[in-house]
Amino acid sequence: MKKLKVNKDAQCMACLACVQACSEAFYKVFDPDRSCIQVVEKNDKVKPMVCVQCGKCAKACPNGAITQNAKGVYMVNKKLCDGCGKCVEACPFGVMVKAEDKPNASKCIACGICAKACPMDVLEVVES
Predict the structure, then answer these.
(1) Where does the 4Fe-4S ferredoxin-type domain start and stop, copy by copy (predicted)?
(2) Which helix (H) or strand (E) holds 47?
């Protein structure tokens, strides 16, 4: 299974390079609300929130628009997605995105763009 992982030995410095890389790759603009990765402060530590490919978004989708591919990554079928936002509500990590001006939801596809942008090597794409 392919997924994005937070390296527990590395310290996030909240530079938002990962957030910027993600939103610019998929929406062509730096907008943290359009990024499929979020940086949050929790227990006095800064931590990236990433999609762990749990599938809760797929279970919540009434149209069956989110399915798991052969590598274990949940993908949004834009032809089936009607933008209802139920997947966004179901995501326990707050990393499903539904931009108001876009017809479909989007999510992390474990592409690694954010990991490449991170100067602290906090993120990595792994096969598990």
Answers:
(1) 2-32, 42-71, 72-101, 104-128
(2) strand 45-49
